[in-house]
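User: Design a sequence. Structure:
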């Protein structure tokens, strides 16, 4: 009598039994930390020692990937032909020794306008565009020249040629004249210059401007929505009190801890003041 052999059960592929773990887990948002520092005024009073104290705190709080210096980094204009070179060197030496390999970019301010050749020598171009570190080229960093209270033709040309394939973080020295701003009106761009800035950016790019950082006003201010018609998603910041010049020690002096988060197709920038006494 022949022994009956039970038909073997076919094993189902493991991939059919349960979804792959990589498909179950949601992708984590990528977080890029950076610092924003404005108006250090190295060369004015004891600003150099204040800057040497403030900068390590800004860099060491979190894994900083980039540092923005927003103009009036030095008090060079007041000492043109005398101490300007020493002030730029002092600023650059402090930055280099503190940041190490962390990339940075400085915008030009009104106190540096008369020493533009020295600014370029020590701190690079006065206007331009680069990949924002850590974003694989998805976000561009744009810095502009409005040191004398108006945008240069080169800066306006940069804005007109922004590509909607990318997102943008923009920095320049003078604050824009947005509704509700609390900065001293003498330290804010005119309405016509503000309009020139906003109207120069192509319509299809306006939703891609994540944040605008400005300085010069010697205080902190931020407006997180509807800063100008057509710019519903752009955030606007003022950070102009990182040095001694007109900066109080009661919590007004400091810098911004900022974050750029990327989660799929969602990009977001935020920044929070850190006071330094």
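Assistant: Done.
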């Amino acid at each position: 009598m022949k022994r009956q052999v039970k038909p073997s059960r076919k094993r189902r592929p493991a991939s059919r039994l349960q979804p792959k773990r990589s498909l179950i887990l949601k992708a984590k948002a990528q977080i890029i930390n950076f610092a924003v520092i404005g108006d250090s005024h190295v060369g004015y009073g004891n600003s150099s020692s204040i800057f040497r104290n403030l900068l390590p705190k800004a860099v060491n709080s979190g894994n900083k990937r980039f540092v923005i210096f927003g103009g009036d980094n030095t008090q060079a204009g007041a000492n043109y032909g005398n101490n300007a070179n020493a002030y730029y060197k002092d600023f650059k030496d402090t930055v280099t020794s503190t940041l190490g390999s962390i990339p940075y970019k400085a915008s030009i301010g009104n106190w540096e306008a008369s020493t533009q050749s020295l600014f370029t020598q020590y701190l690079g171009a006065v206007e331009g565009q680069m990949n924002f570190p850590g974003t694989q080229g998805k976000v561009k960093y744009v810095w502009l020249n409005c040191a004398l209270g108006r945008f240069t033709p080169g800066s306006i040309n940069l804005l007109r040629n922004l590509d909607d394939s990318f997102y943008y973080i923009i920095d320049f020295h003078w604050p824009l004249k947005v509704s509700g701003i609390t900065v001293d009106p003498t330290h804010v761009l005119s309405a016509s210059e503000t309009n020139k800035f906003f109207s120069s950016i192509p319509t299809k790019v306006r939703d891609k401007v994540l944040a605008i950082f400005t300085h010069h006003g010697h205080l902190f201010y931020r407006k997180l929505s509807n800063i100008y018609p057509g710019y519903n998603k752009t955030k606007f910041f003022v950070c102009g009190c990182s040095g001694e010049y007109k900066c109080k020690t009661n919590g007004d002096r400091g810098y911004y801890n900022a974050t750029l988060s990327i989660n799929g197709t969602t990009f977001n920038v935020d920044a929070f003041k850190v006071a330094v006494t």
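The two ends are 97 Å apart (CA to CA). DSSP finds seven helices and eleven strands in the chain.
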